[in-house]
Amino acid sequence: MTMDFNRTVLVTGGSGFIGSHLVCALVNKHPEWRIINLDNLDYCCSPRSLESIEDKANYTFIRGDVCNPRLLNHIFNTEHIDVIFHLAAKTHVESSFQSPSSFQLVNIDGTRVLLGAAHQARHQPQRFIYVSTDEVYGASLDKVFDENNSVRPNNPYSATKAAAEYLVRSYWDKYKFPIIITRSNNIYGPRQYTEKVIPRFLTLLQMNKKCTIQGTLPKSRHFLFVDDAISAFLLLLEKGTVGEIYNVGTSCEIPIMQLARQLVKMVKNVPDSEVNNWLEFVPDRPRVDLRYPITCEKLQQLGWRAEVSWAEGIRQTVKWYQENPGFWSEAVEDQGQIRSKLEEVTKT
Ligand SMILES: NC(=O)c1ccc[n+]([C@@H]2O[C@H](COP(=O)([O-])OP(=O)(O)OC[C@H]3O[C@@H](n4cnc5c(N)ncnc54)[C@H](O)[C@@H]3O)[C@@H](O)[C@H]2O)c1
């Protein structure tokens, strides 16, 4: 029996942290929509992230590279894609200093290829939502950025995200292709890969190692719980104005030092006097961004509010990492096996 779906949504990067939460929300909330996930399963993915929905009738997975024009043209010519959420990207700021070319390839070229295929599709998409970052503004000590501020990215990751934004906007300016851009704060929650700060601290503590604090500068970040980010993306799909940019933010700003101390207390259950035993200071890269304050009034005018407090979000996150201690180490082992199998195949 074939089912009739009334909307087809393509999510790129749907196996990643935010992508997997978005795919699960779409699949569960909208059985009448068909959800296609295109992802090449980079090192930061676990197959377990999507196990709760992978057998659902309205879900399809395509393992593939967003930079592959033949694949992308094929997808857009054989499926009637109505909505695109573009999340596929290289995302780890530290790595972007070591391998900027792979960031350019995926984040810029991948976006170019996807836009080209989507725009030329026989069935015209209604929305193309590009998930960008507050980091495109560059850091600020006191200025609070709104969507009209100019961008000034200052690391290779944010530079590629900003470049991709310009490509996306050019399709609006030139063709009135119905794009929306989101710029969000740091997003956190269950299933985030261990290279990002909250899961890194939690994983270190679970291994009885100290939290490594980079540098001595008073760095802080705004943290938005993943469910709130997803509700913003879904609201923007229905109510966002095409051609516009929306900040997706939170007033919850946490100094990294305070974050580490809070996580030590939650995971190790130690009194204040012993917290420092679980902290270690390591050198930082030069000119790290201290903070990224943004205002998201434009999004709030559409009716969005962050619903999950920091206390509740971090409680849920810590609980998930405590209940799933092998989630990422096993994923890395699986990936290692896949890689060595591939090497064997390519050798013969
Ligand atoms: N995590 C945050 O705090 C945050 C904040 C703002 C914006 N963003 C943006 O949200 C998006 C998702 O971020 P995330 O934190 O979930 O990252 P992530 O690294 O967990 O996920 C990225 C996904 O993209 C996939 N991918 C990478 N290269 C690909 C390629 N060539 N073809 C197909 N798929 C590919 C990966 O396999 C992975 O599933 C990114 O575009 C990121 O820039 C993230």
From TrEMBL:
Cofactor(s) in the UniProt record: NAD(+)
Protein EC: 4.2.1.46
GO molecular function: dTDP-glucose 4,6-dehydratase activity
One GO-annotated biological process of the protein: nucleotide-sugar metabolic process
Domain NAD(P)-binding: 10-317
UniProt superkingdom: Eukaryota
Catalytic activity: dTDP-alpha-D-glucose = dTDP-4-dehydro-6-deoxy-alpha-D-glucose + H2O
Keywords: Lyase, NAD
Family statement drawn from the similarity comment of this UniProt entry: Belongs to the NAD(P)-dependent epimerase/dehydratase family. dTDP-glucose dehydratase subfamily.
PANTHER family documented for this protein: DTDP-D-GLUCOSE 4,6-DEHYDRATASE-RELATED
Protein name per UniProt: dTDP-D-glucose 4,6-dehydratase
Organism: Mastacembelus armatus
